[in-house]
Design brief:
This protein has helices spanning 13-22, 31-39, 47-51, 66-73, 79-88, 115-125, 139-149, 154-180, 242-262, 284-294, 296-299, 312-320, 334-343, 394-408, 433-444, 462-470, 485-495, and strands at residues 2-7, 26-29, 45-46, 95-99, 131-133, 201-206, 218-222, 233-236, 265-271, 274-281, 302-306, 324-329, 348-351, 361-365, 368-372, 385-386, 415-419, 422-427, 452-455, 475-478, 498-501. The protein is of the alpha/beta class.
């Protein structure tokens, strides 16, 4: 039996090669792989000795030769193929061990592998007769099976072939993405939404079920890329569910936006991907209590995201509050973690790094996919226009910014009301903006007086604004852009409230 080894990632290489040699396999190796085997004292033959051709073009051509590819691709069930091998003096290759240059980590022309993908694909195509190993994680299992059975089963070879084609597909997708972006001669105005998107998704986390028990669910990540979810540490509680991850992602991103805006400690509480509480304060315990006061009933079974390390005082406040499905924070003091783990045995306690920026958003529609750029709130307050006779006070500006952030991350139609750094009412997901305002006011329960309101899209008529002003809201942020903006502004002036237009709509569906 004969194996060809040509790998960039040499993890586990020596152990695999030694194991194959102990089983009586003949080894062929190229370039630096050969050097690694020689350094370990493992007997092998260099590729150049098999091909009769030295490596050339700075290593760009090593294995691209009939003596290699004929040995890999020959169909052993066809006498004509075997006759061709005999006529050309080519020995069959029964196992290929190859992985590709790490293009994603350091993209560039010289890391576009040619010979590697050719070998991998050739072996994978001929999996009926040839096994292909592309991942060091598969080495121990392959050695064990070879030691027990003397060969790899048809089922194993098929599974390894699938892994190999996924490996080359992810590699090609990374090259296409690089050529579309700043690293290469991308398509200019199509850089964000190029003519094609080559995505390979690898399963990162299995789940018991999806959104509902009758649906299967898992978390995937783009192959070759890391998500902040891959660096999450779970300290207690049950296994994370599909909705836990979906909602926790929304909470984690919102709390980071709030903290970045204000420089204060921030807390966001999310239920069904919508904020049901948010606040900023000088300390985390107070921020949690203020966030919870917005809608404590909805907070039950929700996600609590804390923008700073959880102290003992913050843990004590959380322990007094309603049951949360997930608590997520950058870190926990030992006392805080112990207290929460003892008090909230079913709660998933997560520590996590900051979320990576969203570059594209995808939504599947059967055989179609909608793709868009991220909804970033990039305009700072200096871009907002005061359109009423009354201008916001310093305190109102602080609440307007917070209300705008919360509203933009709430399902449309959305209205948010904030008073003194605390969200007091959120109306989410309504077909009518007036109804969204009524819900926000009802949840505020008298706390809207003197507060700031925000609408994710313009008020088409004054009626939605009037719901807020009757409740005592004294400043409002909205995008503007309606043909009746003048009527809405007049209604704001008549109520004596300050209104700013941000110039940006933030629909969320």
């Amino acid at each position: 039996m004969r194996a060809l080894l040509s790998v960039y990632d040499k993890t586990g290489l020596v152990d695999l090669a030694a194991g194959l040699a102990d089983l009586g396999w003949d080894l062929v190796a190229s370039g630096n792989t050969s050097a690694a085997l020689a350094g370990a004292g493992i007997e092998h033959v260099q590729v150049a000795a098999v091909t009769g051709s030295p490596e050339m073009l700075d290593g760009r051509v090593k294995t691209l030769h009939p003596a290699i590819h004929g040995g890999i691709l020959a169909d052993r069930s066809k006498p004509s193929h075997l006759a061709d091998l005999e006529a050309q003096g080519i020995e069959p290759i029964d196992l290929v061990v190859s992985n590709l240059y790490p293009f994603s980590s350091d993209p560039g022309i010289e890391l576009i592998d040619i010979g590697g993908p050719a070998m991998v694909r050739a072996a994978a195509k001929n999996f009926a007769h040839v096994a292909i190993l592309t991942s060091p994680a598969d080495y121990p299992g392959a050695l064990d099976e070879l030691g027990r059975s003397g060969e790899l089963s048809a089922e194993t070879r098929r599974r390894l072939a699938r892994t190999a084609f996924a490996h080359t597909a992810a590699y090609d997708a990374a090259i296409v993405a690089w050529l579309d972006g700043a690293g290469g001669p991308g398509p200019g105005e199509d850089a964000d939404l190029p003519p094609s998107l080559a995505l390979t998704l690898e399963r990162a986390q299995a789940m018991r079920y999806g959104e509902n028990p009758h649906q299967r669910g898992a978390r995937y990540r783009i192959a070759g890329e890391q998500s902040w979810w891959d660096r999450v540490a779970q300290h207690g509680g049950k296994e994370l569910s599909y909705l836990n991850i979906f909602d926790a992602d929304a909470a984690w991103r919102l709390v980071h936006e709030l903290a970045a805006d204000t420089g204060e400690q921030a807390v966001a509480i999310i239920k069904h991907a919508n904020p049901c509480g948010a606040a900023v304060a000088p300390d985390l315990a107070r921020a949690y209590r203020l966030a919870l006061e917005c809608d404590p009933q909805s907070a039950f079974g929700g996600i609590v995201a804390l923008g700073g390390p959880v102290t003992g005082a913050a843990a004590a406040a959380i322990a007094e509050g309603p049951q949360a499905d997930v608590i997520i924070a950058p870190d926990y003091e030992p006392e805080a973690l112990a207290r929460l783990a003892a008090k909230r045995k079913a709660t998933r306690l997560l520590s996590a790094p900051g979320p990576e920026p969203i570059t594209r958003q995808f939504r599947s529609l059967g055989a179609s996919v909608l793709v868009q750029g991220p909804d970033r709130l990039e305009r700072d307050r200096s871009a907002w226009e005061v359109v009423t006779a009354a201008a916001p006070t310093t305190a109102q500006w602080r609440d307007l910014v917070l209300a705008w952030r919360v509203c933009a991350r709430t399902t449309s139609n959305a209205i948010a009301i904030v008073t003194d750094g605390q969200a007091v009412g959120v109306g989410a997901g309504q077909q009518s903006r007036v109804v969204a305002a009524e819900i926000a006011v009802a949840k505020a329960a008298g706390r809207a007086k003197g507060g700031a309101g925000a609408s994710d899209a313009y008020f088409p008529f004054p009626d939605g604004l009037e719901v807020l002003t009757r409740a005592g809201v004294s400043a409002v942020a909205q995008p503007g852009g309606s043909i009746r903006d003048h009527e809405v502004i007049a209604a704001a002036d008549a109520a004596g409230v300050a209104m700013v237009m941000t110039g940006e709509r933030h629909f969320r569906h």
